[in-house]
Amino acid sequence: MKVAFIGTGSMGSLLIEAFLRSGALYPHNLYLSNRGRHKAEMLALRHPGLNVAASNADAAQGSDIVFICVKPHQFPEVIAEIRNVLHETQLVISITSPVLIAMLEEQIPAKVAKIIPSITHSVHSGASLCIYGERVQPEDRLLLEQLMSSISRPTPIKESETRIASDMASCGPAFVAFIVQQWARAAAQLTGISMPEALRLGAEMLLGTGRLLTDGGLTPEQLQRRVAVPGGVTAEGLAILEERLQGVFPSLIEATQCKHEADLAKLATLFSSTVPTASSTASTANTINSANAASSINAANEANAASEASEASEANAASEANVTDHTTNSANNTNTDNADNATNTSPAANADTESTTEML
Fold first, then answer.
1. How is residue 29 annotated by DSSP?
2. Which of 87, 158, 250, 341 has the most CB atoms around its CB within 10 Å?
3. Which pairs from 275-283 meet CB under 8 Å and 24+ separation?
C-alpha cells in the first residue's frame, strides 16, 4: 500500500513516526512532500527507506491514501497542485477541522475523509476523530480505522461536532497541560516544592486519572465521590474550583467556536476562487469552438487561393506557345508549394486546438 503525506510539519511528522513505530506502515510505503524539502529529507535520514517526492503531485499520484497535513489556508493551493493526478479510487484525508468535506469533494474526484489527530498519538494514545464523505465505502472506513487504531482510538463523529470534539481530543492536551503548569507553579511558590517535582506528580496523576475514566470505567462524578470525603481536604478544594471556574469553560468554547467560524469563512472564499464553474466551462468550450471555426475558415481560404493560382498558371501556359520548359516547370513548382501550404495549414490549427483541450 502506498501512502502519501503532503506536509511534514509538526503533526505530519508526528503521524508518520507514530505509524512507523507501531509497525502499521513501513518506510517504503510512505511518500513525503513538503513546501521545503529539508523537513522531509530529515525524516528520511532518521527513517531509511522513506521516499521524498519531488512535488506534491508526485507524492499523491498512485497513492492509495493521501494525508494532507498543511495549514488550512494552504489547502486550496495544494488541491490545485494534485487535482489532476487524483482518481476516484483514492482516499484523501484532511487532518484540519475548518476544511469541510464538501469543499474537497467539489474540487477532486477522490473519496474524502477527515481525521483530526492528537499529539497523544505520539505515545499511541488518545482519540482520533473520524468523519467520512459520501463517496467513502464501508471497506474504506474499515481500512482507515484499522490504520488509526494502531496509534489511537478511532472515534467516528458528525462533521457538525468537529469543533467541540477537537477542543476535547486535540486541543485538550494543551488546555490540561496549562492547568497542571499553573497548579505546579503555585505549589512551588507557596510551599517550597520544586517545580519539576510538582510537574512530575501532576503528570502521573493525569495518567492514572485517564485510565480510571477509560479502562477503570468510572465517571467523573463517581471518581470525585471516591476521593472526596465530606468535610475533608478534597471537598474543600472542589468547592473552590466550582466557585472560581464558573464561566471559564463556556468562554473557552465560545472563543474556539468563534475562531473556527472565522476560519470557515476565509476558506470558503479561498476555495470559491478555485471551483470550476459551469460558466467557465462553457467559456472554455466556446473558445475551443471558435478556434476550430477559425482554423476551418483559414484552411478553406488558403485552399481557394492555391486553386486560383493554379488556374491562372495553366491559362498563361496555354496562351503563350513560346513559353519555355523552364517557365512551365517554375509554375508547376509554384503550384506544388501553394498546395503544400494549403494542406499543412489545417493540421497546425488542429494541433493548437488539441493543445488547448489538453490544458483544460
1. G
2. 341
3. 275/106, 275/107
C-alpha cell at 39: 523537513
Q: Encode pLDDT of 262-282 as tens digits.
A: 999 999 898 887 655 444 333
Phi, psi torsion values for 224, nearest 5 degrees: -60, -40
Contact by Cβ (8 Å): 67, 93:
yes
CA angle at residue 140 from 156 to 135, to 5 degrees? 85
Give dist(CA 229, CA 6) in Å, integer: 53
Count how many residues are written for the chain. Answer: 360
The full DSSP string for 126-194 is: SEEEEEE-TT--HHHHHHHHHHHTTTSEEEE--GGGHHHHHHHHTSHHHHHHHHHHHHHHHHHHHH---
Residue with cell 468537529: 162
49-66 exposure pattern, b = at least 16 Cβ within 10 A, e = fewer: ebbbbeebbbbbbebebb
pLDDT of residue 275: 59
Cell representation of residue 244: 472560581
